[in-house]
Amino acid sequence: MKTAIFPGSFDPITKGHKDIAIKASLLFDKVYVAIGDNSDKKNMFSKEQRLAWLRLVFANYTNIECIIYSGLTIEFCKKHNINYIVRGLRSINDYENEKNIAYTNKSLYPSIETVFLLCDSSYSHISSSVVKEIIQLNGCVKNFIPEEITF
Predict the structure, then answer these.
(1) If phi over 0 gives left and psi between -120 and 50 gives alpha, with beta otherwise, what is residue 10?
(2) Does some domain include residue 82?
(3) pTM value?
(4) Catalytic-residue membership of 128
(5) Is 47 one of the annotated active-site residues of the chain?
(6) Contact partners, residue 102, CB within 8 Å, separation at least 6
């Protein structure tokens, strides 16, 4: 069975995140959409709220499981026999950053492969950071987040 993890903060989940997760679900037998720790990010929403949103968005996808985990993604992969990490790319900047992380992960866990998926071009400008700023300024985010989530 081919199992992958799609880790992220999903703070909040965007249409781009949803697009990548669905694409991954077509490639792998099981996909964990997993909320992890990222010390570089200041979260707006609790992990529990983000998990509830993920479960709502992916309720109809039987091979997607939404979870919270802590620690290094690579350690979670080792513990659960996961050999694939899915990462979404929007731009060349994303690629450069993700490539370095992928090489580091590979050196820590040689069995891991990182799979880069391009989000649909109509979502390439969307980031959780921008969505959070719009929310903070009381703007409308319905064009940027999955339709299952409302503010």
Answers:
(1) left
(2) yes
(3) 0.95
(4) yes
(5) no
(6) 85, 87, 114
The pLDDT tens digits for 69-93 are: 999 999 999 999 999 999 999 988 8
Told to judge if 30 belongs to the known catalytic residues of this protein, a careful annotator would answer no
- The yes-or-no answer on residue 99 being catalytic is no
Is residue 121 in a domain?
A: yes
Residue 14 per-residue DSSP state:
-
The count of domains in the chain is: 1
> How do residues 5-35 score in pLDDT, each as one tens digit?
999 999 999 999 999 999 999 999 999 999 9
Q: Domain for residue 141, yes or no?
A: no
| Residue from 9, 15, 17, 132 carrying the catalytic annotation | 17
User: Which residues constitute the domain of residue 68?
Assistant: 3-136
Domain containing residue 30: CATH number: 3.40.50.620
